[in-house]
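Amino acid chain
________________
===
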Amino acid sequence: MAGKVAKNKGTGKGKPKADKLWQGRFEGGMASSMERLSISLAFDRKLFREDIEGSMAHAHGLKAAGVLTAPELKKMLAGLEKVKADLEAGKDLFLPSDEDIHMAVERILTERIGALGKKLHTGRSRNDQVATDLKLYVRRRAADLETAITGLQQAIYRKALAYRNELMPGYTHVQQAQPIYIAHYLLSFFWALERDKTRMRNAAASAGQMPLGSGALAGSAFPYQRELVAARLGFPELSPNSIDATAHRDFALEFLGACAVLGALLSGYAEDFVLWSTQEFMYIELGEAYTSGSSMMPQKKNPDSMELIRGKSGRLLGNFTRLFTVMKGLPHAYDRDLQEDKEPVFDSVETLDLCLTVMSEAMDSLRFRMDSISKKMHPGMLATDLADYLVEKGIAFRDAHHIVGRMVGQAEAAGVSFLELPESAWATIPDGKAFRKRLTFAYSAERRNIAGGTGSKSVTSQLAQAKRLLKI
């Protein structure tokens, strides 16, 4: 019932409710509807490792500040280690009244080690605590995603090696444009992923300033050795301003932005693979483990893995937009709106981790159908090479473009390729008869051995550079 006040003591799912750790200021309990709105343990429990590790480092800071004695520190650390071990083992230690992971850990610790546990929160607020937890999480998950990206790059490298000598049509506007090596196409994916790794590193770096010691917004009143705590947690810097440390989530936005950009990249290549697996193209075939059938049509083999990855890109962009909308116009310093910062981060991490795994495995399973690809390579892709040849013979490019364009138009009208036009159509081309024999897809590709081009020498150079980056 709306407005119903929950009692401070009671039962829920067979467990007693604990008193709120902040309730000294209040005479009554919190309305049940407010509890449902307020409690975040259902999702922020994912931060238990970061929260406990942050608390252990904070305990060392309290010892250095003279708040804890050496025996107290030892007992507190042992208690926190046991709580962490129990949670990692899957033990359910939480109560319905636990508001969030921070207060849950403190409650469990206090129940186990007694009044000493009440000293843990000295000089610390949930405001700097949650910012620290989330930064630790972002730094670790960004590194994990970078590793997963590398795994996909390794799969791409293996596939590029396997097809390094095979040609396919290169496309612009989903129209055949110029012949390229399949390895060149695959490596375009590899290099884009390398930039995604840079974005992940940048996101981790933006979360590199430790908030602990900032308190609620004005800083701790104790002689808290922040450098000592930061070193224990692996933070390279201290936050220079306590309001900035507790109020801002730009590091989370940067991380979510990096996730969204990566999702868009995966979506684009997934779209290629969906299109190329159709009967109309028949360029690729995915392994059966990464496809599905139809509940109605027995013949179907659908590229569901790629369709699902393509669809997840919207979810990743939505997570960025969700937090961006929360952050827009918030007053400073900390506001409870910031409780909404965690779920989009968690969801993006889990979504991307799965998508990268599936894309890597699907890439290993994928095969290019060279018989079909060869049949569908259109001679019109060689028109640019003819125009380039005329330029080499001293004709201005715009004039050469016009000459070749007219030949292509004549060929379309006749229902043939421009290579099949009669010799009279080639009479205006210097040494046209001899050049027409040289004009092949392989010739076209090999003319493009410029750095970054599709020529075999360039592709070999790209493969060597990729191997160095992958350290294989």
About this structure: The chain has three domains: 34-122, 127-222+236-375, 378-470. Residues 126-162 form the longest helix (37 residues). Strands lie at 11-12, 15-16, 167-172, 175-181, 209-210, 237-238, 284-285, 367-368.
